[in-house]
Design a protein that fits this description.
- With 339 residues, the chain is of the alpha/beta class.
- It is built from 15 helices and 15 strands.
Length: 339
């Protein structure tokens, strides 16, 4: 294939990606009012092949957003309502005794609701840590182990979880290892005056709107692969590396805010999330490469749940968002300035 043909193919794929992304935005926007940034963040997770955590007070449309998105994707959807009495087998499935045609009894695996492609883990922090951890293998390896048997989950597979703020009663904070498996953590805020009026118009009148199908599984997998082929220049990637390393206390690139407020910094998954999300942002902007600005724009949702603050930060009311914003100001864009 000649260079001209390769260029034309890449251009065509980039246009297909942007068109698909916009169509998904439009279909979700038929049901969900406002929250444009949250919708973009969830779609970024889907095209990056990552899981997404939505946090916000009850009634802000988190579950409705995920349900609407499942309508726009031709994938098998499953919803799991997390409660304190939920057990791991209720999610994964269990071996049951069944009778075969010849009358013999045998153990047969009965798959749980986790065996889908889009899994809505609703109010995930209302279940006990034992049940929360049942998702760990599925979120990372896309497989489930029951006894000595490993069951692969159908691709594409991703978990979209919602949770109420940790401060509310009857909730269990997610383990750090599980938080790290979420590509983005998105904070869902309250609607403004105009958006709330539109919500009332749509929900208190007789009209009913539903999102239409936009993309199926094979097409989504193909666009995921295309996204990862987007370019990132070494200096831009180095900025992402230095930004993530700046979250490690007393490290080579640690900043004042890090040493003062951070107990543990981000894992390498944070850098991976930033780079892939930056590539997606660049493609949406009509470029086939990620920029410094793209890295900075996606750093907050990629890092806010991967930084563990110390007691001093909690005492002063400092949040991880505040720390990340301070690091974005402090970390030099160019490597030579960091020398």
């Amino acid at each position: 294939m000649s260079s001209e043909q390769q260029t034309a193919q890449v251009t065509q794929q980039a246009e297909e990606f942007r068109a698909t992304f916009k169509n998904l935005q439009d279909e979700v926007g038929k049901v969900i009012v406002g929250h444009r940034e949250i919708i973009n963040g969830v779609l970024t997770c889907i095209f990056a092949g990552g899981n997404c955590l939505l946090e916000g007070a009850p009634g802000l449309g988190k579950t409705m957003l995920v349900r609407t998105l499942s309508q726009a994707l031709e994938l098998r959807f499953s919803r799991i309502q997390f409660t304190p009495d939920l057990m791991p087998s209720d999610i994964i499935g269990t071996n049951i005794v069944s009778e075969s045609e010849d009358g013999k009894r045998e153990m047969r695996f009965q798959p749980g609701p986790l065996f889908a492609q889009i899994v809505l883990a609703d109010e995930i922090n209302r279940a006990t840590p034992k049940t929360q951890s049942a998702l760990l293998e599925a979120m990372q390896e896309h497989s489930v182990t029951v006894g000595r048997t490993i069951y692969k989950l159908e691709e594409p597979f991703f978990v979209l979880a919602t949770q109420n703020p940790i401060e509310q009663e009857g909730t269990y904070p997610l383990p750090e290892a599980q938080l790290d498996r979420f590509f983005f953590k998105l904070n869902v805020g309250y609607s403004g005056r105009k958006d709330l009026a539109e919500v009332l118009r749509r929900t208190t009148e007789a009209a009913y709107v539903e999102a239409g199908k936009v993309i199926d599984g094979p097409a989504l997998l193909r666009l995921r692969k295309f996204v990862r082929q987007a370019l990132i220049a070494p200096p831009v990637q180095d900025y992402a590396v230095r930004l993530v390393l700046s979250t490690v206390p007393n490290g080579e690139f640690a900043q004042e805010a890090t040493n003062k407020y951070v107990r543990f910094g981000s894992s390498p998954r944070g850098a991976q999330a930033i780079v892939v999300a930056a590539k997606i942002r660049g493609l949406l902007d009509g470029r086939y490469h990620a920029s410094i600005e793209d890295i900075a724009a996606v750093a907050l949702p990629a890092l806010r749940h991967r930084i563990i603050l110390n007691f001093e930060a909690e005492a002063e009311g400092i949040t991880t968002d505040h720390v990340v914003q301070e690091l974005l100001k402090a970390v030099p864009k160019q490597a030579e300035e960091a020398a």
